Sequence to fold (268 residues):
Amino acid sequence: MTGTTPTRFRVHHFAELKARQEPITMLTCYDTLHARLFDTAGIETLLVGDSYGNTMLGYPSTIPVTLEEMVIATRAVARGARRAFIVGDLPFGSYEESEAQAVRSSIALIKAGAHAVKLEGGERQAHTIRAITAAGVSVVGHIGFTPQSEAKLGGPRVQGRGEEGATRLIDDAAAVQEAGAIAVVLEMVPAKLAAKITEILEIPTIGIGAGAGTDGQVLVWTDMAGMTEWTPSFSQQFGQIGKALTQAATDYKNAVKSGEFPAEKHSF
Ligand code: KIV
Fold:
């Protein structure tokens, strides 16, 4: 998938990249414009994460995001991505009630253009992963720190610490794989444990705050691009796009106020 061939990254490429130990790249994405940009950059997988809620819609967390909002974002990303594999996040409240609800919600995201769905939870959600997979939909698991259970977990904390915590996380990872998931996101997990899980599993692990020993990495794009001043300690700003955008808007405002814009060349 490296290079310029406009081949679609497909489900089997996850296993292929893991087999040849080539790191898988994933970024969150919520609209057509950014899907085009990230696709051009060669990002292999775009996650229409429920972080759409707090990064783009102004919600205080991912909790309020609705399935309808995720469907709109997924449709937009699908319109912009020619090559990337699109993962649609099942938002809180769209899959916990029953397997039937989970399958229904997953189908809505697939109809919107996702190639797979993601849901949070290990052993406790294995039956859900199994049901969605049986309906013909690929599932990406998500264990470790799971933002939808933030209140229950007591805030954004590293998961899997201590022998008992590590065993629980390994069991979660194994349950997700056994249920049929195609990959699993490990969020805020000690690097050594994440590397151990990566070694144990046949499916790829995608880390966020889980060190360098996973099969791939995912970041929230607004963190990656430096859209805001604050970035989580496990992330990195690979640009200062927030500052650049504020500057561009300031320059535009000043040019209009001073009468420099529009100039003769901008006029008919
Ligand atoms: O919604 C999201 O951004 C996510 C990532 C943190 C993995 O689930």
Summary: The radius of gyration is 20 Å. The longest helix spans residues 241-258. Residues 226 and 240 are 5 Å apart (CA to CA). Residues 28, 49-51, 89, 185, 187, 208, 218, 220 surround 3-methyl-2-oxobutanoic acid (CB under 6 Å).
